[in-house]
Structure formats: C-alpha cells, structure tokens
C-alpha cells in the first residue's frame, strides 16, 4: 500500500489502534475507525490525537465521508487518512471533506491523482478544505 500525503508535518510512525483500544489507552496517538463506528467519541481526545485513519471497506461505502466531516467540523486538525478501497475518482471529494492522506489498497498513479484534483477550476460549495466557492468569487 503506497500512501499519498498532502501534509507538511512528519508522518506518524506509531501504528493506529482500534477505536475501543484508543479509548482505553492513555498513551495512544493514532486510531483506526471502522465504517459505522461513532467518531464523536474521539472529540474529547483531540488534544492527544495525531492521526485518525478511517477505513473504506468498499468504494461505495460513504460512511467515511460523514466521519471525516464530523471530525473536521468539530475542530480536529490532525492527520486524517482514508484507507482501503480508495479510488482516484474519490480523491477530490475526500480532500474536500477533510482527508489529507490516503492509503489506497490498490496503487494510484500520482499523475492521474494530480489531474483529478485539478479537474475542476471552480467549486460550488464550502467544505473542510476552505476552498473559496465560485459564487463568493463572483459576489464577494
């Protein structure tokens, strides 16, 4: 599995533990969240969290998008990694919702990833990536 990172900080070498294990440990800094687990349980622990890895067991399972949005909307600023069945067609939307690193099960061509991230010069909604939507560019 090759990881794609869009962060400037050093990658965390610590392995991610399960959500239950994280909540029981006081020294863990990385957690892996499976599809359907309640990420709101992590909110009180943002101060010690450096990495949240969210599992995408199948590309059509969108619960990871919701988990990422909940984390970012509640102030999580650490690394947010999408892991598993991550397709190049999803990278732009995952970036918009707040993912900043990816560990796809199948390798992705970096050139194709870059092209997909730059495919649309204007965006229409506000999102976790803080891109300025086109309506705001037009109307201030």
Structural class: alpha/beta
The tally of beta strands, per DSSP, is 6
Q: List low-pLDDT spans.
A: none
Mean pLDDT: 91
Describe the structure.
This protein is an alpha/beta fold and 140 residues long. The protein has a single domain, classed as 3-Layer(aba) Sandwich (Rossmann fold), CATH 3.40.50. It is built from 5 helices and 6 strands. It has helices at residues 19-24, 63-73, 91-97, 110-117, 134-139, and strands spanning 4-5, 17-18, 30-33, 51-56, 79-84, 101-104. The protein has a 6-stranded mixed sheet with strand order 1-6-5-4-3-2. The longest helix has 11 residues, at 63-73. The model has no long low-confidence stretch (mean pLDDT 91). This is DUF934 domain-containing protein. It comes from Sphingomonas tabacisoli. It holds the Pfam family DUF934.
Give the gist of this structure.
The chain is α/β, with parallel strands linked by helices and 140 residues long.
Annotate the secondary structure layout.
Layout: E1 4-5, E2 17-18, H1 19-24, E3 30-33, E4 51-56, H2 63-73, E5 79-84, H3 91-97, E6 101-104, H4 110-117, H5 134-139
